[in-house]
């Protein structure tokens, strides 16, 4: 469904009305288009004294074709502000953040990017340093709410030894692919990550399985993974067979009709993958999900069981068997689709919120175990995304979902898909255990 208010707010008359009345002002977001450069203008790079990331990041960005500036004159616009805060060792050192962002905040263009680089507090040498590094979260989340105009702000904690593995994450956050991701804290672990031979097709030669792929977010995920070079198996229930075949044809992939809640579904899926030319699967995206909304006092047991079964139990069972049979090799990627409902809760969705919090728990429980096998597991947590499902919501709830975030608008299925493609990239080899909200920095939850 079209967002008529956003269309009006971006018209000539609408801009005047919105400004005079102080109404929500949804900007036009910079989303990725084929052929786009990484950034639309210069990147201003700053650092606190003693930081360890500024020079590696400078080399990385220059190799990617970005123009780097250490300072800029009055009236000169930049596309991104990147600050290395790893040298901040105590609360007095936090003044370096003010000294960088205060004079340059107005130099950032619309749909610009703010990235603060820090050290994971648990890796620091002293309590004072840990406190200072944890303080960075408040800065980036506040900037995401202050700057407006489609600007996003993120904190990236890079573990010592993970400097060279941050490229995939920085490319995602600086590009139009992260248009609806803001206010997030992302952790890049220690270790090396392969550099794709072609950053436009980082998934070449990899096999991806996307569940719930017949429509909406699942179809968008299949399209983006195929665009990035993956061979895609689009899976959905038999009742969605026609739509599923359309997605498979569009992506030049394969359609697989399977009800993942069936008792023999994991066995059948494992057999299908083992018999294929890859002998397994490189990227597994658990997108299939349902809602059966009622307050818990009015909910019957079937609504509870169906939602938990599809959204949580099925991914657990599939993961368990595929891992047991070594059908997800080293270098594999597992991505779950959670929800901000699993973080903040939602009235009338106790079953759904429970299942999506469980997806987050699945990521956190499996991440250290799978790291030993060279497999990453992460989740995305969408907020209000414009789909056929949200189009059926009552208008009041729909408008609240659209406006109660820093972007004052709903996201698109492609925003979720782009985030999953980043997590699926070979270059994201040390990004694991993360739950990344795709919500325009929703005011709900953390």
Automatic annotation (TrEMBL):
It holds the Pfam family adh_short_C2. One of its GO terms (molecular function) is oxidoreductase activity, acting on the CH-OH group of donors, NAD or NADP as acceptor. It comes from the Bacteria. Residues 206-383 form the Ketoreductase domain. Belongs to the short-chain dehydrogenases/reductases (SDR) family. PANTHER family: 3-OXOACYL-[ACYL-CARRIER-PROTEIN] REDUCTASE [NADH], SHORT-CHAIN DEHYDROGENASES/REDUCTASES FAMILY MEMBER. This is 3-oxoacyl-[acyl-carrier protein] reductase. The lineage of its organism: Bacteria, Bacillati, Actinomycetota, Actinomycetes, Micromonosporales.
């Amino acid at each position: 469904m079209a967002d008529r208010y956003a269309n009006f707010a971006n018209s000539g008359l609408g801009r005047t009305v919105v400004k005079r009345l102080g109404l929500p002002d949804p900007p036009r977001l910079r989303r990725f288009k084929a052929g786009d450069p990484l950034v639309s203008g210069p990147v201003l790079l700053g650092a606190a004294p003693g930081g360890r990331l500024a020079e590696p990041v400078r080399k990385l960005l220059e190799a990617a074709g970005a123009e780097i500036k250490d300072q800029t004159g009055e009236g000169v616009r930049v596309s991104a502000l990147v600050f290395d805060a790893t040298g901040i060792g105590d609360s007095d050192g936090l003044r370096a953040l003010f000294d960088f962002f205060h004079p340059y905040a107005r130099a950032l263009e619309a749909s610009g990017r703010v990235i603060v680089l820090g050290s994971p507090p648990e890796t620091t040498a002293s309590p004072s340093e840990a406190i200072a590094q944890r303080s960075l979260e408040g800065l980036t989340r506040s900037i995401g709410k202050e700057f407006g105009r489609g600007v996003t702000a993120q904190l990236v904690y890079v573990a010592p030894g993970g400097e060279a593995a941050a490229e995939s994450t920085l490319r995602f956050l600086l590009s139009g692919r992260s248009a609806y991701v803001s206010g997030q804290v992302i952790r890049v672990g220690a270790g090396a990550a392969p550099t794709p031979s072609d950053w436009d097709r980082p998934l070449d030669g990899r096999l991806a399985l996307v569940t719930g792929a017949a429509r909406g977010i699942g179809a968008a995920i299949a399209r983006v993974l195929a665009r990035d070079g993956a061979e895609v198996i689009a899976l959905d229930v038999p009742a969605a067979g026609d739509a599923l075949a359309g997605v498979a044809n569009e992506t030049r992939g394969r359609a697989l009709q399977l009800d993942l809640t069936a008792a023999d579904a994991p066995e059948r899926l494992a057999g299908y993958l083992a018999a294929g030319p890859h002998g397994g699967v490189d990227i597994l995206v658990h997108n299939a999900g349902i809602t059966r909304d009622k307050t818990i006092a009015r909910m019957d047991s079937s609504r509870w069981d169906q939602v938990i079964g599809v959204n949580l139990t099925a991914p657990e069972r599939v993961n368990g068997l595929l891992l047991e049979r070594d059908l997800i090799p080293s270098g594999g990627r597992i991505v779950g689709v959670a929800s901000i409902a699993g973080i903040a809760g939602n009235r009338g969705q106790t079953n759904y919120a429970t299942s999506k919090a469980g997806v987050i728990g699945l990521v956190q429980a499996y991440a250290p175990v799978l790291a030993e096998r060279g497999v990453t597991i992460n989740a995305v947590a969408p907020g209000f995304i414009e789909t056929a499902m949200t189009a059926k919501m009552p208008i009041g709830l729909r408008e609240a979902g659209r406006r109660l975030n820093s972007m004052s608008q709903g996201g698109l299925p492609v925003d979720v898909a782009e985030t999953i493609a980043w997590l699926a990239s070979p270059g994201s080899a040390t990004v694991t255990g993360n739950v990344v909200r795709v919500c325009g920095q929703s005011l709900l939850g953390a």
